[in-house]
Amino acid sequence: MCTSIHRHSLHCILPPYILSQIAENGSPEMRAMAIRSLLVDPTIRIVRASTAGPVAGEIARRRAAAGNILAPSPLRTIRDAGGEPEAPGATVVRREGDGPTGDVAADEAYDGLGATFALFWEAYRRNSIDDAGLPLDATVHYDQDYDNAFWDGTQMVFGDGDGELFNRFTISLDVIGHELTHGVTEKEAGLAYFNQSGALNESISDVFGSLVKQRLLGQTAEEADWLIGAGLLTPKVNGSALRSMKAPGTAYDDPVLGKDPQPGHMDDFIRTNQDNGGVHVNSGIPNRAFYLAATTIGGNSWERAGQIWYNALLDPNTRANTDFAGFARVTIDVAGRLYGSGSAEATAVTEAWSAVGVI
């Protein structure tokens, strides 16, 4: 589990149950890597018992400050940790407007930050993570063979992977979008990173991480793969990604990593004290609800389906302790306000939550 000594929750893309499986089933080298990651992560983050989004006045202030900007652009800075467990790294390797560096990880991080900024501005008129032009920073080549990527409340940090099980963590665009969306959630609803609210926090990051990728590739809901972390697993692993929003529980089935444990229906909801109450596991349920809603609505998922989820995240009825059923009610209400209570969009959202057993 990832932790941090600063006031922000730190969210890692690789769930601790995967590292635990590697520590149990891997080769001596793999076990050593996993155990080291499990030991390193708690030294860099302490997850808050609850988080609170900004008060209404602060949100209004940010909206007003950003409202005068006609066409904002990202302000990106990429640093290189040089294999040291320090973030930010000391060396700046690329700033906003600079050309490619030739370092694949640095350039992928730069492009991924830009694609995420573009989705939130062009689709939802959100000016960066905080809606007030927050600079986007990232550190690459963090630690030695580090198997994770995380948002620490101020920047993105990427490990290079171990090369045996995991590739570099900048390789997957939806991972970058996922981690940055944790910053959006923290600024808005502040969903507490425990139990169902924490699983919603993870799911919302998966949703918008997938939308970043779909929009950049120009894919419709039907064309998208709905995988989170595609490309992260090496050919030695029997799997396609870390998670599948379309079919939770099917992303991988490997002798070392184990079998993808995500449920896709409330009948299979996992009650556990691990992973902050199963935040990475049970996120499969709201993930599938979004997939069902988006594919039923059709077209580009970042448009109508994404608008519903984004506005639900900003809705004052989505609070720090909102559970699956509470968020379902908000999305249904938002769909009705945006498109009409009897609209195809509102019906699709209602049926999607019903199909996964939430309502």
UniProtKB/TrEMBL annotation:
What is its EC class? hydrolase
Q: Which domain of life is it from?
A: Bacteria
One GO cellular component, as annotated: extracellular region
Where in the cell? Secreted
Q: Name one GO molecular function term.
A: metalloendopeptidase activity
Biological process terms from the Gene Ontology for this record are:
proteolysis
Q: Where is the Peptidase M4 C-terminal domain?
A: 189-358
Principal place where this protein is found?
secreted
Q: Where is this region: Disordered?
A: 76-101
Q: What is its EC number?
A: 3.4.24.-
Q: Which UniProt keywords apply?
A: Hydrolase, Metal-binding, Metalloprotease, Protease, Secreted, Zinc
> Could you name the active-site residues?
E179, H280
Peptidase M4 domain sequence ranges: 104-186
Cofactors named for this entry: Zn(2+)
Q: Which PANTHER family match?
A: NEUTRAL METALLOPROTEINASE, PTHR43579
The UniProt entry's sequence similarity note says:
Belongs to the peptidase M4 family.
What function is annotated for this protein? Extracellular zinc metalloprotease.
What name appears for this protein in its UniProt entry? Answer: Neutral metalloproteinase
| Organism ancestry | Bacteria, Pseudomonadati, Pseudomonadota, Alphaproteobacteria, Sphingomonadales
